[in-house]
Amino acid sequence: MLSYPIELTPDSNGTLLVTFPDVPEAITVGENEDDAEVQALDALEAALEIYFSEKRLIPLPSKAKRGQRVVTLPALVTSKVLLANEMLQQNVRKAELARRLKVNQVQVDRLLNFRHSSRIEMVESAFAVLGRRLEVRLV
User: Fold this and answer.
1) Rg (Cα) of the chain, in Å, rounded?
2) Residue ranges of the HicB-like antitoxin of toxin-antitoxin system domain (predicted)?
3) pLDDT digits over 98-115, tens only?
4) 61 found inside a domain
């Protein structure tokens, strides 16, 4: 799973400004630390969608400093981020991935939508046609 470090900065109105050193486009606010983390996940996912729509590699998280809070992407979203980056690195467009998977391009659009609940088996198939394998580990 991908865990992105966050910075919480007290704002003048009593809220917390949330920023991501690795993803400068992801900015949000929270009423308190718990709310800030909830808002941060939404802001991070929205910013990562911008990277993909602009066909830019999605930055992977840097290592958090000791005691620094992080926002961890869910496993399915993590796999989609890695898939999006792999497609960009291999210069494989959505239409080409759909052709290789023998599915409609709408299915690939959903597969690459971070907010869509895709089946993990479909993500695995996408990696397979790209010559890669998705692994899940318990730590």
Assistant:
1) 16
2) 4-121
3) 999 999 999 999 999 888
4) yes
Both structure tokens of 33: 């630390």
Annotate 31-44 with DSSP letters as a single string.
SSHHHHHHHHHHHH
Give a yes or no: residue 34 inside a domain: yes
Domain that holds residue 112: 75-129
CB 72 within 8 A of CB 115: no
CB distance 57 to 51 below 8 Å:
yes
CA atoms within 13 A on the CB side of 40: 28
Q: Which of 86, 70, 72, 95 is nearest to 123 (CA)?
A: 86
Residue 44 near residue 3 (C-beta atoms within 8 A): no
* Same domain for 68 and 23: yes
| Model pTM above 0.90 | no
The total number of structural domains in the chain stands at 2
